[in-house]
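TA notes, week 10

Several of you asked for a full example with nothing omitted. So below is the full record: structure tokens for the whole chain, then the designed sequence directly under it. When grading your own attempts, check the secondary structure regions first.
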């Protein structure tokens, strides 16, 4: 899953597709095409930054950012388009525009989001987050992060099934960095396989995370080696989808891992 943030303020690629303060659709499409050529099977389009400290944007502003990109990619490229949103209206409009996956950091808890996702018929990814982006990293606390994240994800899975979303259309994401300390993140990665039932795919987003900077003393533009190491560790521990910024490098690392695994057999 390649990351394409149609936002001016996301922590990594925020503003990359803007010209004179306005979203430049051609730049966004060029980046999407590049990630597809590098091996991305999914392009995740977001219109609201969820980095620590980020503030909410209006539903209309999110729609204005996301819909042109979703529609254009869906029409022009052979790739699944994921929409990174918690907003019911955006879910409905993106589904109509050709989105193939709903990726919600709030696990369909906002008003109307659950029913909109169910009505869309699309697969959904439910993520765990403690708090909201503007405050989530101030003082995250757990008695047992692994057990609590597992319990939350299983509860949201059941809520989705009760709402008519087939179990086979649900993915789960432990939400690395979303209301977690580095210690919490490492514990969740260590126990990744236990966080979801075996029949439910796990999606992981660890690319360029600030924990890499803190643990290794690396600036944002120096986090590729750490991102690749975490991607491989996640894949080895059961992640089925990796949400990344550096598609080509991650695909190379995974291919080498696959070759080693095939040789062992």
């Amino acid at each position: 899953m390649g990351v394409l943030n149609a936002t001016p303020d996301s922590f990594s690629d925020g503003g990359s597709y803007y010209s004179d303060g306005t979203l430049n659709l051609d730049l966004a499409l060029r980046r999407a095409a590049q990630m597809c050529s590098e091996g991305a099977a999914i392009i995740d389009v977001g219109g609201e930054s969820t980095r620590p400290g980020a503030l909410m944007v209006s539903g209309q502003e999110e729609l204005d950012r996301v819909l042109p990109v979703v529609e254009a990619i869906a029409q022009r490229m052979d790739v699944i388009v994921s929409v990174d949103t918690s907003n019911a209206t955006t879910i409905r409009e993106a589904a109509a525009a050709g989105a193939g996956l709903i990726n919600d950091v709030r696990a369909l808890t906002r008003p109307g989001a659950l029913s909109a996702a169910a009505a869309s018929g699309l697969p959904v990814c439910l993520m765990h987050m403690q708090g909201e982006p503007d405050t989530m990293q101030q003082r995250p606390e757990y008695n047992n992060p692994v057990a609590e994240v597992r319990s939350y994800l299983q509860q949201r899975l059941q809520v989705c099934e009760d709402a008519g979303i087939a179990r086979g259309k649900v993915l789960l994401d432990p939400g690395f960095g979303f209301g977690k300390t580095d210690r919490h993140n490492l514990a969740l990665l260590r126990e990744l396989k236990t966080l979801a039932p075996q029949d439910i795919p796990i999606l992981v987003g660890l690319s360029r995370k600030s924990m890499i900077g803190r643990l290794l003393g690396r600036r944002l533009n120096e986090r590729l080696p750490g991102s690749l190491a975490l991607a491989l560790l996640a894949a080895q521990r059961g992640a089925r989808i990796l949400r990344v910024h550096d598609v080509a490098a991650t695909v190379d690392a995974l291919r080498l891992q696959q070759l080693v695994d095939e040789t062992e057999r």
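The mean pLDDT is 92. Use that as a sanity check on your answer.
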